[in-house]
Amino acid sequence: MSRPRGNEQVITEAMLARLRDTAAENARRLRLDADLVMVHDASPLGLVEQRGTAGRWVWRCHQDLSSAQPQIWSALRPIASATTRPVFSLARSRRRSPSPFIVIRPSIRSPSATAR
Length: 116
Description:
Structural class: alpha/beta
CATH class: Alpha Beta
CATH topology: Rossmann fold
Distance between the termini: 19 Å
CATH architecture: 3-Layer(aba) Sandwich
């Protein structure tokens, strides 16, 4: 999702539609009426569109959104806004947060820049 990790990618409407279709298919297989649903990373974020009114939904985002591709973020932001609370690994991602957020750094010791 963020540009520093690689080249900017062209995301087509067909790709976004496939992401939504996959989320809808997965939602039919999962029990989403729990008290708390944790959505981990951007790939399953589309499940949020399938949520009912029960429970709280938290989106755990490890990606650096401070320089996210505008096209991708504009597609994901409305979905992220539907979560109860986003949780970011990086404080600098808060600039893109669609709602009040929490920053929780990774709890593993890793040499990657994301974990520092």
